[in-house]
Amino acid sequence: LLKEAFAAAGMEAQVGMELDPARVDYMVFSPRGQAEGFERYTRLKAILSLWAGVEQALPLVPAEIPLSRMVDFGLTQGMVEWVTGHVLRHHLGIDAHIHGLNGAWIDDKHPPLAPDRTVGILGLGALGTACGEALCTLGFRVAGWSRSAKTHPQITCFSGAAGLDEMLSQTEIAVLLLPDTPATENTLDARRLALMPKDAVIINPGRGPLIDDTALIAALDRGHIGHATLDVFRQEPLPKDHPFWAHKQVTVTPHIASVTRPKTAAQTIVETIRLHEAGEPLRFKVDRFVGY
Ligand SMILES: NC(=O)c1ccc[n+]([C@@H]2O[C@H](COP(=O)([O-])OP(=O)(O)OC[C@H]3O[C@@H](n4cnc5c(N)ncnc54)[C@H](OP(=O)(O)O)[C@@H]3O)[C@@H](O)[C@H]2O)c1
125 in ligand 1 pocket by Cβ < 6 Å? Predict the structure, then answer.
């Protein structure tokens, strides 16, 4: 698909290691592929990550070569669908309504409507904003937190440490879509989990280190946090003996929240190169100083 998209744009693409390093202007890269020997590519203008999260790519890519992260329609759409599905599961209380126990319903109460439910999104970037907008369309009250201060016509925006505390104190369902950087590690720690309303739900399709796992399990065990749905972990695959597997209030999924879709990502990559060749700044450029 990438070769076809390049050919349609009048560009040449080579796949794998058969290429002549001295002829390569742009490299499309995932940390699962080539991880060394970048110095042989003497005319590289940029490296384009196939992944949105660049914490594994950054230590591999030489600092002088600009790195662009993946922002892809298919990746975004997949995340919107996954997040919306899991938010609705918890909002509607679907588990309690479809599982009877001893001939009786676990819960037969009507859930509140979406306008009476607050969802807080940690990370208002490409993915977080798209998820927030979809949830707004369903009628939810949506708040979002980012590093820089933002405004949005539908999403109530927060930034800074105090902003996160204020947002979490109102957040019944938290969706974590922050990158994995030194500044975001343990964003949800014991103190911040305690700020959330009782029975709040955590949904993490971002990265494992965003949550202090021990603090989360303690908050679930003492009945403060109601449930955690986790797609990403500090160690992947999740070790067989990890307490998350057996915990009744934890749902684990196999890092499938979303994925770069070749059909749409190929178009994104070609367009990023085309714009850069036309003299525009590299799109989706990673800021090495902040790590995303
Ligand atoms: N589970 C999966 O399948 C899957 C798939 C794709 C991506 N992901 C994860 O999703 C993450 C987000 O992707 P994206 O494309 O939305 O990234 P993005 O566009 O770079 O957005 C990141 C957001 O996080 C905010 N942020 C970063 N550091 C922060 C800090 N220290 N404090 C507060 N806010 C901070 C940014 O704030 P500013 O707006 O101020 O810059 C931005 O709003 C990726 O990094 C990756 O880890 C997971």
Answer: yes
